[in-house]
């Protein structure tokens, strides 16, 4: 394949992966319209994802028969599965019960700034002046977009925003901590392991607190749960990895700025959500800030 065609394919795959990832918040909000509790929505996502990751893990293990995972690395996998996918997903789904899908994506999009801070605090990586300015720009954008919504919808938006921010923090901590582990295990095996750990955590959580039978809902609920699992979780996770391989992570970081934009468009089409001009301005400022940080990464 020619380099130009290879890059074009990478960009197309990357955009598709980003749009599918961005659809998660919209699909979850549609699920909530059927009076589905938060933990049930999360359970449906994981129960439909589970067999796919089992199959992927078994397939990858057959190709790596000689590479066993040490006890120490397995403990870290348990930790990252709990923090990086279970807690991050839990906080995100809670947050979506209070705020718009479009606003959720804008808040989640700040995770690169949190990664930057964690790298500084725990890995002693210096923050350049440009990164510092970009971080400040990003949070000014959040303040603009979020503040306008608070003035209209009140304290529930603050609570929802807080949980989505917790989701961004837990996901960022997972990215920082797992970076050294992935090269030892491999992307596919690592992702499959931590996703299965996350699934099991959700299953236990659901079994403890759920008071409603999983079989008591309409067919639309199960269709939406399946779409969240496959279209918004499994498929885009591999599309993004493929895109990064074809066009590099720095180029993909530019494409990633389409995430909040695609969520806003999908939310307008399927949820009748609208952001004010001030909120759109704040979203644009956030995107600019994150792009500046992504450009300056080594």
UniProtKB/TrEMBL annotation:
Give the transmembrane ranges. 7-32, 38-58, 74-99, 105-123, 132-152, 158-182, 194-215, 221-240, 252-271, 277-294
Q: Which residues form the EamA domain?
A: 9-145, 160-294
- Indicate what this protein is called per its UniProt record: Putative permease, DMT superfamily
Please state where this protein is localized. Answer: Membrane
Q: Which domain of life is it from?
A: Bacteria
Give the main location. Answer: membrane
Q: Name one Pfam family in it.
A: EamA
Q: Does the keyword Calcium apply?
A: no
GO cellular component terms? membrane
Q: Which Gene3D superfamilies does the UniProt record give?
A: 1.10.3730.20
Task: Write down the species.
Answer: Tenacibaculum jejuense
Q: Which family does it belong to?
A: Belongs to the EamA transporter family.
Membrane topology classification: Multi-pass membrane protein
């Amino acid at each position: 394949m020619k380099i130009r065609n290879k890059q074009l394919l990478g960009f197309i795959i990357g955009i598709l992966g980003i749009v599918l990832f961005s659809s998660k918040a919209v699909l979850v909000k549609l699920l909530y319209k059927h009076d589905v509790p938060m933990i049930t929505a999360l359970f449906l996502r994981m129960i439909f994802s589970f067999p796919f990751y089992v199959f992927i893990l078994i397939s990858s293990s057959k190709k790596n028969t000689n590479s066993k995972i040490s006890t120490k690395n397995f403990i870290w996998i348990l930790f990252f599965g709990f923090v990086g996918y279970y807690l991050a997903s839990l906080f995100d789904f809670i947050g979506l019960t209070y705020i718009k899908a479009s606003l959720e994506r804008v808040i989640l999009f700040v995770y690169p700034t949190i990664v930057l801070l964690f790298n500084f605090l725990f890995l002693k990586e210096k923050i350049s002046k440009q990164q510092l300015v970009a971080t400040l720009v990003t949070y000014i954008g959040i303040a603009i977009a979020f503040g306008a919504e608070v003035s209209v919808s009140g304290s529930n938006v603050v609570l929802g925003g807080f949980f989505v921010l917790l989701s961004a923090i837990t996901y960022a901590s997972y990215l920082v901590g797992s970076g050294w582990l992935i090269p030892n295990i491999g992307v596919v095996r690592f992702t499959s392991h931590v996703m299965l750990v996350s699934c099991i955590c959700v299953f236990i959580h659901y079994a403890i607190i759920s008071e409603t039978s999983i079989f008591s809902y309409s067919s639309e609920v199960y269709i939406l749960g399946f779409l969240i699992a496959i279209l918004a979780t499994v498929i885009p996770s591999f599309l993004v990895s493929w895109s990064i391989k074809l066009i590099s992570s720095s180029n993909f970081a530019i494409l990633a700025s389409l995430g909040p934009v695609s969520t806003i468009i999908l939310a307008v089409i399927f949820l009748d959500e609208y952001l004010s001009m001030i909120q759109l301005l704040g979203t644009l400022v956030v995107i600019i800030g994150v792009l500046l940080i992504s450009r300056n990464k080594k």
